[in-house]
UniProtKB/TrEMBL annotation:
It comes from Capitella teleta. It comes from the Eukaryota. This is Uncharacterized protein. Residues 1-184 are annotated as: Disordered.
Length: 184
């Protein structure tokens, strides 16, 4: 599926597989898992625990600890300034992280991910992967698909196997390995 993820100012851990997942949280710890369904979540100022299965879920969290799990649908969630743990399966995932640690893994689909000012770890398998990191450490691995990656001002480690790989780094340490495919 398509994976796009955005997080700001904090630790963000995100995994998506075969589904639609959009997640954003603000100021706090956010743990979210979605599988095969529509999930929209927002909460404000406090601890939020939420689980939904096979349906539409609307929820938003801001400034606090948020634990959320949804199954079978579309998941929309945003996280900013805090720790974010998110896992989605089977669909489209949108996620972006800024100023913090971002860990993201997607399998079998299109993955778009951008991180700025922090540590970014990203792995995608079997699909299109677009990734950009600025001012920080960036570790990225893609297998069997199209991979576009750009990093600026920092350490960049990137590996791609069996596909098209486009990678650009400026002002920093860049380690890149590609096997069996087109590498630019």
């Amino acid at each position: 599926g398509v994976h796009s993820d955005r997080s700001t100012h904090g630790v963000h851990s995100d995994r998506s597989t075969h589904g639609v997942h959009s997640d954003r949280s603000t100021h706090g710890v956010h743990s979210d898992r979605s599988t095969h369904g529509v999930h929209s979540d927002r909460s404000t100022h406090g601890v939020h625990s939420d689980r939904s299965t096979h349906g539409v879920h609307s929820d938003r969290s801001t400034h606090g600890v948020h634990s959320d799990r949804s199954t079978h649908g579309v998941h929309s969630d945003r996280s900013t300034h805090g720790v974010h743990s998110d896992r989605s399966t089977h669909g489209v995932h949108s996620d972006r992280s800024t100023h913090g640690v971002h860990s993201d893994r997607s399998t079998h689909g299109v993955h778009s991910d951008r991180s700025t000012h922090g540590v970014h770890s990203d792995r995608s398998t079997h699909g299109v992967h677009s990734d950009r990191s600025t001012h920080g450490v960036h570790s990225d691995r893609s297998t069997h698909g199209v991979h576009s990656d750009r990093s600026t001002h920092g350490v960049h480690s990137d590996r791609s196997t069996h596909g098209v790989h486009s990678d650009r780094s400026t002002h920093g340490v860049h380690s890149d390995r590609s096997t069996h495919g087109v590498h630019s």
